[in-house]
Amino acid sequence: MTTDFEPTPFGIPSDSGGKDLGVFMPMANGGWILSKNAPPLDGSYAYNRKVAVLAEQAGLDFIMSMSKFRGYGGETGHWNRTLDPVVLMAALAEVTSKVKVWTTIHTILQNPAVAAKMIATLDQVSGGRAGLNVVTGAYKGEFSQMGAWPEGVDHDGRYDLAKEWITAIKRLWTEDSVTMDGKYFQLDDCQSWPKPEKRPFLVCAGSSKKGMRFTSEEMDAIFLTGGNAQELAVASRLAKEDAAELGRYVRTYSMMTVVFADSDADAEKTAARYREGLDEEALWGMMRAYGFLDAEIGKENAFVAKSRSTFMTPHVLGTPETVIERLSEIFEVSDTDGLMLIFPDYLTGIPTFGTHVLPALRERFPGKIKVPVHG
Ligand SMILES: Cc1cc2nc3c(=O)[nH]c(=O)nc-3n(C[C@H](O)[C@H](O)[C@H](O)COP(=O)(O)O)c2cc1C
C-alpha cells in the first residue's frame, strides 16, 4: 500500500523527508529514570530555561513538554513536582526564536474554546512555532483527585471526546462563529480570536488502535513507544498505512533516553548504579497509575522486570559512537520521521549530542538533518 501522501509543511525537516530531532522537556522532577542514583533533576523553570536555550543552540527542531498532575511518590517523590506545560512553553518561546515549542493539553480538562485560545496565544508568542500534543488522559487517579474524571466514558469513548474536542478547536481557529451540538461539547455561536496564522502542529501518542485512528484522522504526527529499530519499523508502517487509508500522511516519532559515557564499560557501570538505586516505592506508584491492582503491587511480573532498569523509555548508553550507531540503525531500518531525546543530565547531554552526535548523523543522512543557523 502506498503511504506516499504529502505531509502538511511546518518548517521542519520531515516536511521534505528529513528527520525531526527534539527534546522531551524535563518539567517533572526525576525525569525519565526511576532511580535514587540518577543525577538530581529538579524539574524547575530555571533548569528548563537552560535546556531550551541549549536545544536551540544545538540546532534541534523542537522542544516538547508533557502534562502531568500526579506523581509516583517514593523516596525520590518522582514526578511529584511538575510545571504547567502551556505556561512553561509560552515562557520558553520567549527565550528561543527558532526551535518549535510543543505543549500538551488533556482533552478531559480544558474546554475546547479555552484550549483554542491558549494555543492561538502560544502561536502568537512564539511567532508561529506552536504545537500541541493532544492527550486523552488515561490514569483515573490523576483526574479523580480533582473531580475531573469523566465516569462512564471508557478508553475509546475518551478518544471520541478528543475527536469532538479537536474538531471544535480546528473550527474555532478558522471560522468566525462555531455552533456545534456534540455528545461531549456544545458550542453556541462560539467566537474565538486571534486565529493562529497557520494551523499549529498537532501530535498524539495514542498507542491503541483507537488512538492511532484518531491520530490518522486529525493529527500531523504520532509518537510510537517501541525501542528497537525492527519494532519501530513495524509500528511506523502500521501508523503510516492507517493514515494512508484516509489519504493522509502522519509523521512517526520515537523516544530515546541517551546516557553518554567515556567508554561502553563505563556506561554499563552507570546503568548498574541506576539499577541499584531503583526507587521501588515510586515504581509501585507508577504501577498504580498504570492501573495495576493493589494485589499485584510488590510482586514480580514482566512489567517490574523491565522497570528494574529504572529507565522509563527506550535508552542507549555508551560513547557518542555507540549512540550514533544506535540512532542511525533506527533511522535506516524504521523509516520513522524523528526522535525525541531525553538525558539524565540535559545540561551536559545536549551539548555532547550537538557536538559529537549531530555532525555524524548529518554526514550519514545528507540533507535530512537540519544544520543549526546561529545568530
Ligand atoms: C511521547 C509521549 C508523550 C505522552 N505525553 C503524555 C502526557 O503529557 N500526558 C498524559 O497523560 N499522557 C501522555 N502520554 C500517554 C499517551 O497520550 C497515551 O495515552 C498512551 O500512549 C496510551 O495510548 P492509548 O491512549 O492509545 O491507549 C504520552 C505518551 C508518549 C509516548
From TrEMBL:
Signal peptide: none
Gene Ontology molecular function, alphabetical: alkanesulfonate monooxygenase activity
GO BP terms: alkanesulfonate catabolic process
Stretches assigned to the Luciferase-like domain: 21-332
Methyltransferase found in the keyword field: no
InterPro entries assigned to the protein according to its UniProt record, in alphabetical order: Luciferase-like_dom, Luciferase-like_sf, SsuD_RutA_monooxygenase
UniProt keyword Membrane present: no
CDD domains in the record: Alkanesulfonate_monoxygenase (cd01094)
Domain of life according to the entry: Bacteria
Gene3D superfamilies linked to this entry: Luciferase-like domain (3.20.20.30)
Keywords attached to this entry: Flavoprotein, FMN, Monooxygenase, Oxidoreductase
This protein's name: Luciferase
Organism: Sphingomonas hengshuiensis
